[in-house]
Write a structure and sequence with these properties.
The protein is α/β, with parallel strands linked by helices. It has two domains: about 270 residues, 3-Layer(aba) Sandwich (Aldehyde Dehydrogenase, Chain A, domain 1); about 180 residues, 3-Layer(aba) Sandwich (Aldehyde Dehydrogenase, Chain A, domain 2), CATH 3.40.309.10. It is built from 15 helices and 25 strands. Strands 15-18-19-14-13-21-22 form a seven-stranded mixed β-sheet, with helices on both faces. A six-stranded mixed β-sheet has the order 10-9-8-11-12-24, with helices on both faces. Strand 13, helix 9 and strand 14 form a beta-alpha-beta unit. The chain is globular. The model has no long low-confidence stretch (mean pLDDT about 95).
Length: about 475
């Protein structure tokens, strides 16, 4: 059994008997680790340490910050097996999903390293004769990040690497279901040469210490990934305290399959998009909308493929379906499916539990009075509905307060572009599944799915502030 602690002021603070919590392996709910349970004083110490180091870290050179992140990427590749083991046991990843997550994290580190040289400026035109008008980007200060359990390495890297690349110290509150991954990444950064005080790690329960971190006056900007309910709470706190905030929240994401679609490709996209990591991905395509003429064929094909998804050993590369993260979430999924079936929805495949794993489940007949219509499942549950025409499909796809990502499968370019233009989503993929990730793109959603965008260019705007400097005589 592992014990993990905070990393504050360049010092490891281990978990103690009186101030710790258990981390459980979702496969069998056995205790996997004991983690330090942070309190308000830990948050204050972390924010204070980061703030005291902010000016010095802002003076670090682009070459240094670039090299630290490139070295970190190399170390992550070297330690891929160790990280995979933790992702399997701590959050119930399959080995294939763990390897995918590590690969994405490595690409994010290398891409973000280049941003260390983008904290520049420009010359502006001015009316003053013999005068220069200059604009400079400066680091904003202490950046806080709050990250989820489902992709703890990807989100830990995305939140931290942009802050570190742009000269800002980072304070990290990871999910209380993934503290071991966070501790390993923190150690990796230190081994890569990142100055100890540039990165602070506080473990604990967000409900107990999250507000203190968000509202600490020394924190200038906050990045949050998680549920829309908590995200809106974080946004309110940031607004009240004059802080920048970026939110990447959930989604009930539509995948539209039109009558001329490549059915094999569409089924594969729905299968992976709906059931990868047992649906515990914010970009999961939990709603599939099919042209009525292809609806029955699609459901038959999807269920046939879903029944064949392996649910075996998580270390077997062929395994796709693993355990749901916690008993609380398992019970919530049971309630959502039961509510739908009691009100008339029909389960076409799946619906059976094997200890902590749920078979890939496909339902039809979901109506707007059912919770499945309005709530993000975060489990291996996909609903399929029929649409009569483009207007009907678009109306169904937009019938949600969320707007993270959407996909459409069609050979009709005009229809595809009209869908991309009119769907209320921050990201749209044509003839590809909803789960897509690249470091350079503006990543995020509309409505209840987020606020702002993650990415390289967008991150540069979030993590820096402009300073205007003039040189020369003023205009009389």
């Amino acid at each position: 059994m592992q014990r993990v602690g905070h990393w504050i002021n360049g010092t490891l603070r281990p978990a103690t008997q009186s101030s710790s919590f258990e981390v459980r392996n979702p496969l069998d709910d056995s205790v996997y680790a004991i983690a330090a349970r942070g309190d308000l004083s830990d948050v204050a110490d972390a924010a204070g340490s980061a703030s005291e180091f902010a000016a010095e870290y802002a003076r670090s050179t682009p070459s240094d910050r670039e090299q630290w992140l490139i070295t970190a990427a190399g170390l992550l590749q070297q330690r891929a097996d160790a990280f995979s083991e933790v992702l399997i046991d701590e959050i119930g990843s399959s080995i294939s999903k763990a390897r995918m997550e590590i690969g994405i994290a490595v690409r994010n580190l290398t891409a973000t390293a280049a941003m260390a040289r983008q904290v520049g400026g420009k010359i502006y035109p001015t009316d003053g004769i013999g005068r220069w008008s200059l604009g400079f980007r400066k680091p904003i200060g202490v950046v806080a990040g709050i990250t989820p359990f489902n992709v703890p390495l990807i989100k830990g890297v995305k939140h931290s690497s942009m802050a570190l690349a742009t000269g800002n110290p980072f304070v990290w509150l990871p999910s209380d279901q993934a503290p071991v991954t966070a501790s390993m990444l923190t150690q990796l950064y230190c081994d890569a040469g990142v100055p100890p005080n540039a990165l602070q790690l506080v473990l604990g329960h967000g409900v107990e210490i999250g507000d203190a971190l968000v509202t600490d006056p020394r924190v200038a900007a906050v990045g949050f990934t998680g549920s829309h309910r908590v995200g809106r709470h974080v946004q309110r706190l940031c607004g009240e305290n004059g802080k920048r905030v970026t939110l990447e929240l959930g989604g009930i994401n539509p995948l539209v399959v039109w009558e001329d679609a490549n059915m094999e490709a569409a089924v594969k996209a729905a299968l992976l998009g709906g059931f990868l990591y047992q649906g515990q991905i914010c970009m999961a395509s939990s709603r599939v909308i099919v042209h009525r003429s292809r609806h029955d064929e699609f459901v038959k094909r999807l269920c046939g493929a879903a029944r064949g998804l392996p649910m075996g050993d998580l270390r077997d590369p062929t395994t796709v379906i693993g355990p749901i993260i916690s008993e609380k979430q398992r019970q919530r999924i049971r309630e959502l499916v039961a509510d739908a079936t009691q009100k008339g929805a029909r389960i076409f495949c799946g619906g059976r539990w094997h200890e902590n794993k749920l078979e890939p489940t496909v339902l039809c007949g979901v109506t707007d009075d059912m919770r499945l219509h309005a709530e993000e499942v975060f489990g291996p549950v996909v609903t399929v509905s029929a649409a009569d025409d483009f207007s009907d499909a678009l109306s169904q796809a937009n019938a949600t307060p969320f707007g993270l990502v959407a996909s459409v499968f069609t050979e009709n370019l005009d229809l595809a572009m009209r869908f991309a233009d009119q769907i209320d989503a921050g990201m749209v993929h044509i003839n590809a599944m909803t789960i897509q990730q690249e470091p350079q793109v503006p990543f995020g959603g509309n409505g209840e799915s987020g606020f702002g965008r993650e990415g390289l260019e967008t991150g540069l705007d979030d993590m820096t502030q402009w300073k205007w400097v003039t040189l020369g005589p003023s205009n009389p």
